[in-house]
Structure formats: structure tokens, C-alpha cells
Amino acid sequence: MMVGDVVIPVCDAFLVKGHCRYDCAIVASVDPFVLVSVEGDAIWINNVCPRDIIPLCQAALDISERAIRRYKCHNRKEQNERPKSH
Q1: What are residue 4's phi and psi, to 5 degrees?
Q2: pLDDT, position 59
Q3: Residue 86 scores a pLDDT above 60
Q4: 86 lies in some domain
Q5: Residue at 19 is within a domain
Q6: How far apart are CA 86 and CA 37, in angstroms?
Q7: Spatial contact of 15 and 5, defined as CB atoms under 8 Å apart
Q8: Contact 68, 58 (CB under 8 A)
Q9: Is residue 6 a contact partner of residue 56, using CB atoms and an 8 Å limit?
Q10: What share of the chain is helix, strand, coil (3-state, %, to 5)?
């Protein structure tokens, strides 16, 4: 599996965020394992197991870049919200 792959869940596994269920997602990072919805409105960080998804193909470049940007933006936001040690 590679960054930019379009993936779908296997069998009874689902990509769910809030009340929404997603048919597929884009791999935004492999370590840590991160998936982002095609629309960029949902992100899964280390809570979807790679063995529970199947890679289909590479996403179009603009979709892949959007997924990576969404992950990086989320990562920066998370770092800014951490308490600073003195």
C-alpha cells in the first residue's frame, strides 16, 4: 500500500466518521497509517487497520495532494493544541 492509493474496506469493515459512512478513502500516510476521505472532510489516524482495507488504484494527483494536505493540516493543528512544557 502506498500514499495516494484509493482504498475500500473489506467485508464488514466500514469507514465511518460521525454519522457518515464512506465507500472509499485515500492513503495519506503509511507510517502512521492515515486515511482521508476523497472529499477531505474525514480523517482516520491509526484507527483503521491496513489489513481491513483493499487498495484499488492510485488516486488522481489533485485528490492525492488534497488528502496529504488535509493530513498535514490536521497534524499541525494537533501539535498546536498540545500543552507546552515549561
Answers
A1: 95, -5
A2: 95
A3: no
A4: no
A5: yes
A6: 37
A7: no
A8: no
A9: yes
A10: 30, 35, 35
| Predicted local confidence at residue 85, as pLDDT | 58
Query: DSSP alpha helices (H): ranges in 1-86?
Result: 61-81
HSE (side-chain half, CA atoms, 13 Å) at 39: 7
Q: Which range of residues forms the domain containing residue 16?
A: 5-81
Examine residue 24 and state whether it is found in any structural domain, yes or no: yes
8 Å CB contact between 68 and 28? yes
Q: Is residue 61 part of a domain?
A: yes
pTM, two decimals, is 0.83
Q: Is the pLDDT of residue 12 over 90?
A: no
Q: Which residue has the higher pLDDT, 43 or 74?
A: 43
Beta-strand relationship, 33-36 and 20-22: unpaired
How many other CB atoms are found less than 10 A from the CB of residue 52? 14
Burial, 36: exposed, middle or buried (Cβ in 10 Å; 0-12, 13-18, 19+)? buried
Domain count of the chain? 1
